[in-house]
Amino acid sequence: MNHKNSAAIVAINPDLFNISHFECGNGWFKILKILFTSIRSAPIKIDCVKEKFGGLRVYYSNNTDTELAYVDDAIREAEVASLHTCEMCGKPGSLSTKRYWIKTLCVECDN
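User: That's the sequence. What structure does it adopt?
Assistant: Structure tokens below.
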């Protein structure tokens, strides 16, 4: 994700993040913005945001003894949404393996 979009997401709550860069395409910006807005007050630290096997992955640290099911549910919802959203442009997409990598892409970005 480019620096401008990464910075816009981190600005939602800078204390939430241990990172300043996301290892995924700009097409998932809206998914990530919704996710991090919904969990902005959670007592966690985001350690990694990346694409893996065509889907979004979000890893975090929980330094409390409290189980945070709502955080896990929100992340799972974002991960599922990423499997139907082009990582490059944000249009509806599907998994593609044409280029030896598994990516979620729309028809236009896959050509």
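The chain has a mean pLDDT of 95.
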